[in-house]
Amino acid sequence: MLLEEVFLAALCMSLVPSTLTQEEAAAEPLGLGNITESVVIIEKRGDTPDVIIDTYLRKIFLGNEEVTVSPPDDPHILPKTDAPQIHHVTTVSILQNGNSNEQDIENEEEEEEEIEEEDDTLKGKVPTTATQPSTTAFLDDNFNYFMSRLSAIESAIHRLNVQFFGLDVKVNQMSQSLSKIRTKLADVEDNIATVSELNLRNQRQIGQIEGCFKGRRLLRKCYLIFQHFENYETAQKLCHSRGGNLAMPIDEQEYAALAKYIHDSFYPFNWHIWIGINDLHTEGMYQYENGHRVSFFNWYKDHMIVQPNGKTLENCISVTSIDGKWWDHDCARRMFYVCEY
């Protein structure tokens, strides 16, 4: 096809010399120059030699008439991309006086090889150019991302500082409240201690009044018998909580009145009653609960038993209700007791 078009062009040039002026006029809009010089340079983006020659022949025979030529399906035509296109300059030599066809064929073959090489080069470069990432844009995106993250972290730290400040204020307020509560608790404790002391005094006064009201008044003292079983130590504590002590007769006259009161309370039965005399501190040295030494004794004696006989095992004194005699007993033994006020 290409050879036929070249031969047709050469034949037309030799047979129609009168159309030279028209041909030059048709070639000037395309920038072809003087056709008699046998060299035509056509600049076309992506056109193959077939398209160039066909366009040229149509211009020669049709004059200045606009002709739309659809591009042929050629594997050498590059797809439309955003990559920069390369302008190919193809030199077409048209011999007016019938130059050799072989030279034309060789030139065309060389041109085709050059175009193929350039196409292969473009095919290798275009994807690389198209897919090459923008390093600057990537760095800018990373920088903007890190700055946004730093700004978010700074905002979070500021919020935490505000919350910590609020917590600090609340803690200070709670500390002040706790201090006030502690002060009030101390005052309450003082008040409770005062009330307890007053209560003890009242109980003692009530016990003294009860002892004198329910018991028996003998001279300057009041005695009251409690008919429930307690050991010596507990009996003393109960008497003290009521404002008194276990009975401590200081002489024989006072003890005679106490013995008669005990006898009258339990007659006709015989019970052992705790009184406030013991030798817990020193064996054989009997003392009252107030620490004074006993000045008289009324121990039980017969032909079989002589009191005291318990030594260190029996250190607390009780009296019998039937005859008022003294016995030493184990202090842990439980029995009735008599208090004095």
What is the element layout, followed by pairings?
Elements: H1 2-15, H2 20-27, E1 39-44, H3 49-62, E2 88-93, H4 101-131, H5 135-214, E3 216-218, E4 221-230, H6 232-241, E5 245-246, H7 252-266, E6 272-278, E7 287-288, E8 316-320, E9 326-329, E10 335-340
Parallel strand pairs: 6-10
Antiparallel strand pairs: 1-2, 3-4, 4-10, 5-10, 6-7, 6-8, 8-9
Helix pairs in contact: 1-3, 2-3
Number of domains: 3
The CATH topology of the largest domain corresponds to Mannose-Binding Protein A, Chain A
> How many distinct helices?
7
Question: What is the share of helical residues?
Answer: 40-55%
- As an assembly, this protein is single chain
Supply the CATH architecture of the largest domain: Roll
CATH class of the largest domain: Alpha Beta
Question: How does this structure look, described?
Answer:
- It is a single chain.
- This protein is α+β, with helices and mostly antiparallel strands.
- It folds into three domains: 2-126, no CATH class; 157-211; 215-340, Roll (Mannose-Binding Protein A, Chain A), CATH 3.10.100.10.
- It contains seven helices and ten strands.
- It has helices spanning 2-15, 20-27, 49-62, 101-131, 135-214, 232-241, 252-266; strands at 39-44, 88-93, 216-218, 221-230, 245-246, 272-278, 287-288, 316-320, 326-329, 335-340.
- The strands form two sheets. Strands 3, 4, 5, 6, 7, 8, 9 and 10 form an eight-stranded mixed sheet that branches. It has a two-stranded antiparallel ribbon with strand order 1-2.
- It is rod-shaped and about 185 Å long.
- One of its GO terms (cellular component) is extracellular region.
- Residues 218-340 form the C-type lectin domain.
- This is C-type lectin domain family 11 member A.
